[in-house]
Amino acid sequence: MSVPAVWPLAVHSAMLSNLAPADALALVSMQNYHGLFWQGDPDTIAALGHQRSIMGESAPVVTTVSFAPDDRNPVDPEDAAAAAETLGATGVRISGAPIRGQTYAEAYDATVRLCEAYSQVAQRRGLRVLLHQRWGTLTTSASQLHRVLSNFDPLVVGCVYDAGSMTIEGYEEYRIGLEILGSYVADVHIANTRHFPSATGTVWDWEWSPLSDGLLDLQRLFRALRRSGYQGWITLADRSPGQSAAALLDADRHTLQQVIDDFEGVGSHNPLRPLDDHVDRADRSDRAPGAPLEVGARR
Amino acid sequence: MTAVAQWPLSAYTIALPHMTPEEAVDAVKAAGYDGIEWSVHFHGPDTSRQPTRLHRNDRCFVEPTAKALGHVRRLCDRVGLQISGLGLGGQFNRREGIQQAFELAEIAGSRLIRIQAGHTLEGQSFAEAYEASVRLCDAYSREAVHHDVKVVLHQHWGTATASASSLYRLLSQFDPRHIGCIYDPGNMVVEGYEDYRIGLGMLRDYVAHVHLKNVRYAHGLMVDAWHREWAPLDDGLVDLRYLFSALEEIGYGGWIVMSDVGESREEHAMLRHNHQFLLHEMAKARGSGE
Predict the structure, then answer these.
(1) Phi-psi region of A69 (alpha: psi -120 to 50; beta: other; left: phi over 0)
(2) For the whole prediction, is pTM greater than 0.90?
(3) What CATH number belongs to B9-287?
């Protein structure tokens, strides 16, 4: 048997978009994920809440609610907070303002105002607002997220640190980004993309890809998460096409468990780069003392 | 149609490792550039048997001495090429290097000197690298008050200023008349990429210089995570048309420095090709109506 996960695993509902609420919840639970990051249409909340009550203790936790489309905030703060309460979620996810079509200053002001509006409602109801690190918005990088979030109490406004989105836009070294954001990090999303020459121009294009085939470096990410002391949810948001939700959830859980366990030689570590955790094996609390040094270990 | 550059074009000599400074000046001028940017480094003390290639046995480095910089200034003056800036080596990213940095700029007649923020690659915390960089920028900008030379902090992966947001966090404490940045879209494909309108819209007056190179991603052997590699200027993730329209939006008035390290073409051909390609992309950017 493998070592239990240090971090609880959740599933983004974008991976379950073809399933009815009952089937989605059952699949998440059957695949041994404990949480559901729910994003969808306000009309389906009642059905989802009803199904959770039928399942009782066996239902996955709804970690956060969010409303499609992913790069907009179509539901007003009161309704979003009410939805979170209905589903027993502690987080309300919001998207930063789009950068196209307005100036940086306008997008920044709009994003801060948005956080203010949601935070007032959330604080009253004991919820936490999560500003999403998302490509195409103002807040694509950890540093830009920090510029917005530093106006707020991290207990009231936090963020979704999105390792998938940052393969498209906003990548800063995981260890550095997590240090900058500190206690603002409330959820970590996992997805992947790969890039390829465009068929029509000189600028490369991208597409969603499996966890093992793209810029995402899971082993490096999880070492950085361990180092930062992060203890919250890991939310799988794999959008790679071609497989059923059940097959993806199964394969990805194995991949995640491998990187969480930090098996030597398994996972996605790129040997051309140091792992950047700079913690000797012997000093790691999750390692037995006296374990032999790995070949090529630094220092 | 003869395209006219919207901004003066320069070529950075790290892209020309096979040329001597004398050859570089003639080739850059002949290819149509307005300026040249010198990479100022000592040649490494270990003589490798490797032939010259990128960052190995560079022939085009100008050593950080009064004699060497006086020499390249005379070479440039002779053909009418401006020196757009000096890319100073690592020994200038310390307080002890400040006096010499300004002396070399005056000898070369360069209005810009490049420095880099603290490294984050080797286990340093962001806090350590950032604090060291604040002290360095403070010392440089105090000295710059006494010179007609602007200090430019290079946006660079593996440093405390990989993204435009992190550059702004640092630079916003200083006067943009004395210290600004090199906005580097190629470096940010390695680390720090944010939509150009985010970075340029935030940095605005701090954007003093622009370097252009390209990077693409590739699937390595026996690993899952892809890696980054240098690419020719016209084959990677940098979107030059969008960049040029974003530069126009903030009224950018500085240099565009061609810094192609993709090693795809012989260097004379690369200089000519990229000059034409940049003019073409500038024209397309204006034609797009953005």
Answers:
(1) beta
(2) yes
(3) 3.20.20.150
